[in-house]
Amino acid sequence: MKNILTVSQLNENIKAFLEEAFGSLWVEGEVSNLRRPQSGHVYFTLKDDKSQIRAVYFRQYGHAQNRAVNFNLEDGMKILCRARLSAYPPRGDYQLIVESVEPQGVGALQKAFEQLKLKLAAEGLFDESLKKAPPFLPRRIGVVTSPTGSVIRDILNITRRRFPSVDILVAPTRVQGNEAAPEIISALRHLHAYGKVDVIIIARGGGSLEDLAPFNDESLAREIFHSAIPIVSAVGHETDFTICDFVADLRAPTPSAAAELVVPLRSDLQNRLQNLRKRLVAAQRRHLDDQKELLAALQARFKDPRRFLMDFSIHLDDLRERIQRALTQNTQVMKSKLKHLELGLQHQTPERQIREKRILLNNLEKDATQAWERYLRDRRVRLTKQEALLSSLSPLAVLQRGYSITRRLPDGKIVRNAGWLTLDDSIRIQMAQGVIQARVEKIREE
Amino acid sequence: MAKEKFEDALEKLEKIVRDMEAGEMPLDSALKSFEEGIRLIRFCSAKLDETQRRVEQLLENENSLQTKHFQDEDPHEP
Lengths: 446, 78
Fold this sequence. Notes:
- The structure holds two protein chains of two kinds.
- By secondary structure, chain A is of the alpha/beta class.
- Helix content of chain A is about 50%, strand content about 20%.
- Chain B is of the alpha+beta class.
- Chain B is about 50% helix and about 15% strand.
- Chain B has a two-stranded antiparallel sheet.
- In chain B, α1 (about 5-20) runs antiparallel to α2.
- The longest helix of chain B has 23 residues, at about 25-50.
- β7 of chain A pairs parallel with β1 of chain B.
């Protein structure tokens, strides 16, 4: 008997055969004919240069189990899929049921990481201007990390060593695997809700890019971005960068470094405080010294007014003495000058002159009288003598004897020489008795 | 007055010291500043001298948040 199958039976057999025979596969190829219908499932064709195969990426896989985070399939993208081979009986097609996808080339996670980083950067989630400064000295630090392991121990040790009185509130989470990101988000929310936390450290030790995948989660990035409390990210080793590092307010290269960044060193603060105390006291002392000095200087300048009075009084005495001395001296000078003048004046007085003149006058009078008397006496003597002489010489006596005196007229000149006369001159001839006037008639010169 | 923060206190103290060192303060203010400075130093020192800390773990218990001592930390550490 021929075994006759219906088309449906055949396709069902093929489907069962394919699923059983191939099991789980790893297939690589390039994405093309990408379609995303409303259902949310993704349909595409996976191809290489010679061949192609249909593929479907169901939504439940795409979201829950894709470890490559949220990278988007694009036409032309080279991918590596984990898939089962199956058939679609209604159409008799066989196709790949894709379970997970990783981009090929740059590396699956790396690609996803770069995509998310660009997207969030474009949205401004990494803006430096939006980052909050962690507090200088937190009272309580929230730590989101695994409650076991070296990370939390390092953080506890370092914070205690640096500043023993800072409280720590641990919000324990897984830090690896698919549940890690949601747990971290929830831990952040709990810390916010609980309050009294000044800063949060999200920490994880080093690991592969895959291990760090939760810290590249977009939802976590947004949660960190919107956190009211400053968040320090310390994920992986110094060379590992996660989205969490970029969006956090501060990135620490390691969890230990995060503890150091968040908690100041107590001894530093003590030194600083000590220094400030010294400076404060010194400044105060200097200030007081300055004031004291100022006061002393003012005091020195502030003299008892009685001292001024004494000074004045001394000065006054001095002046008085000097003025007296000057006055006395002056008076004496004046006196002596006056005396001198008086003397001079006495010398100049007319009384004396008068007296002297009077004496002189008296003398003169006396002299004059004497002289007069002497003169008179002398004259008298001489007169007597002359009288006698005269009487002997008197022309009258001659005339008595007959002589006459002839005078020319009109000049009256006695004519002693006949030659002095000319004819008809009038002459007068005096006789002892009488006078005659005559005229010359004849002249005979001898 | 709200709870004073160490860093604010330290900042205030720095300013006081700088102002006093500038030396142009009237005596009254200088004395007040000095007293305030000493108070801030005491406050800061007290903060620095504290050694007790609590290390706790946050728990979600029936929709309410509680804390318990964190097991990794030795409560009797120096």
